[in-house]
Amino acid sequence: MYVTIKELAEYLHLSPDFVFQQIKAGNIRAVHDGDQYLVNKDQFTSTKDKIEKEILLWREEQLQEIPTDIDVKDED
Q1: HEC profile for the chain?
Q2: I want to staple 37 with a disulfide (CB 3.0 to 4.6 A). Which of 13, 30, 43, 76 is the partner?
Q3: How many CB atoms neighbour CB 23 within 10 A?
Q4: How many CB atoms are closer than 10 A to CB 16?
Q5: In whole angstroms, how large is the CA radius of gyration of the chain?
């Protein structure tokens, strides 16, 4: 299924400008129909899953508390 840049950006939770830059850089394959770029949405299924997993890991990492009593040896 082909989608527009805006639809792909919403699907991947990215900005449309970033998606457009990636198309121009050649990192995302797209077809230009004369008016707009169209991208095959199916090629991003695994990418979306990977991005969502990384976001979850980052959020979990941010929620972890730093221990108040860190026993660190000074090597100097």
Answers
A1: CEEEHHHHHHHHCCCHHHHHHHHHHCCCCCEECCCCEEEEHHHHHHHHHHHHHHHHHHHHHHHCCCCCCCCCCCCC
A2: 30
A3: 17
A4: 14
A5: 20
Residue 6 has pLDDT above 90, yes or no: yes
Q: Is the CA virtual torsion 12, 17, 18, 24 positive or negative? A: positive
Q: How is residue 55 written in tokens?
A: 């976001």
pLDDT digits (tens, 9 = 90+) for 34-50: 999 999 988 887 777 77
Task: Tell the burial category of 67 from Cβ atoms under 10 Å away from its Cβ (0-12, 13-18, 19+).
Answer: exposed
Neighbouring residues of 30: CB distance < 8 A, sequence distance ≥ 6: 5, 23, 37, 38, 39
